Amino acid sequence: MSGPHFKHACAAAALFAALGAGSAEAAGPKVVSGPSADAQCFVPWTDKTKFFQYAKKPGPYRIALANGFIGNTWRIQMIKTAKAYAEQPEIKKQLKEFKVVSTGDDIAAQISAVNNFIDSGYDAVIIDAQNPTAFRSAVKRAQAAGVVLVAFDNTLDTDEAINVNVDQEGLGKYWGEWLAKSLPKGGDVLEVRGVPGTSVDTDRHKGLQDALKASGKTFSTVEVVGKWDDGTAQKVSADAIAVHKHFDGMTAQGGSTGMVRAFLDAGAPLVPAGAETENGFRKLCLEDGSKGLSCASGGTGPAQVAVAMKTALAALGGETVPQSIRLPLAHVEAPDFKAGVNTFPDQTDNFFVGNAFPTCGITFTAQEIMGRSEANQ
C-alpha cells in the first residue's frame, strides 16, 4: 500500500502506538529507588526488595476487599477490622466506596471476584489469597487497568503486585525453637495445621519443622488439619489424643484454644504449647500455667488488613511503597501472661490479641472491631 492512504495509516499507527505506550506507562507501577513514603510502617522485606510508584490518582477512591475463606474467627475479625478501619474519619474521607466480598474455598470464585472489581473500575483491590500462584492473570489484568493490587496474610507468589505480611515461616520457626527449648529430650508433638494449600499453612509448617530438625533433638510430629478454627482444631486434636494417647508438646497455627481444650476434656497431661494469639488460648495459659501448660503465644493480629488498606491508599496517592512489606510479630511467653495487659479475661475467647501495628499508627479497641459484621457489603 502507498500514497495518502498509506501515510494516513502510518500516522494513525504511530498515534495508536504513542497512546498505547502512554497508557502502559501510566497503568503499571514504576520501579523506583527507596526509601518508602512511611519508612516506619512500610518496611521492605529485604534490602533487595524493589519499590513501586503508581501514577497519582485523585480521590476519593473505590476500594474492594476480596476475601476467600471465612470459616474461622481470624478471618471474621479481619473483615470486621477492615470495616472499622474504613470508618475511621481520616480514612473514610478518602473512600468513595468500600466493598467486601468473601468467596469461600473456591479459588476460581475469588479470582472471578478480583477480576470483576478490576473490570468495574475499582481503584484498588485487597486480597487474602486462597492460593499464592493462581492469580497471575489477575495481576496482569490489574496492571493493565492501572488498579493497585495488594495481597496480605496469604500473599501472592509474584513481584508484580504488592505483598504485605509477617514472616510466616519465621513464626513457625519461633514456635519450633520454643518447643525445642521447652522439651530438652525431644519427643512427640501434635501439630495442628491450617487451611491446606494456602501459603500461610505451608510457610508456618516449614518453619516449625525446620526448627525442630535444626535443634538436633529427636522429634516426631502428628499432623492434623484444624483450618485455624477452634471447633475443628478441638475435634481433630481429640481424635489424635484418642489414637496416640500421649504427646510431649503441641502447637497450632490457629484454633489454639480448641487444641488445649481437647487436652483438658480428655484429661490428658498438659504439655508445652506454642501457638497463636487467640485470647482464649492466652486465658488458658494464664489459668492453667501451674498445671503444666507452659505457653508461647505468637502471631499477627487481623489488623494487618488495615496496613494493606493503608498501603493501597499510599500507592493511589503516588507515594513510594515497597513491593513486599514486612510487619512485626507480636508474642508473649510464660510466665509473662498478664490479665489486662496481654490477656483479657473479660473479652471473648475468639478475639485475637496483638491486633495493632503502632509503627503504622493502627490500633483498635475490641469494641470498635467486634461491633462490626463479617457479612458481604
How is this structure best described in words?
The protein is an alpha/beta fold and 377 residues long. It has two domains: 24-166 and 302-329 and 355-370, 3-Layer(aba) Sandwich (Rossmann fold), CATH 3.40.50.2300; 168-299, Rossmann fold (3-Layer(aba) Sandwich). It is 40% helix and 19% strand. It contains twelve helices and 15 strands. The chain has helices spanning 3-27, 73-86, 89-92, 107-119, 136-145, 168-182, 199-214, 230-244, 256-266, 279-287, 304-316, 366-370; strands at 30-32, 51-53, 61-67, 95-102, 124-128, 148-152, 162-166, 187-193, 219-225, 249-252, 273-275, 295-299, 321-322, 324-327, 330-333. The protein has a six-stranded parallel sheet with strand order 4-3-5-6-7-14, sandwiched between helices. Strands 9-8-10-11-12-15 form a six-stranded mixed sheet, with helices on both faces. The protein is elongated, with a radius of gyration of 23 Å. Mean pLDDT is 91; it is low at 1-26. Residues 63-319 form the Periplasmic binding protein domain. GO terms for molecular function: carbohydrate binding. It holds the Pfam family Peripla_BP_4.
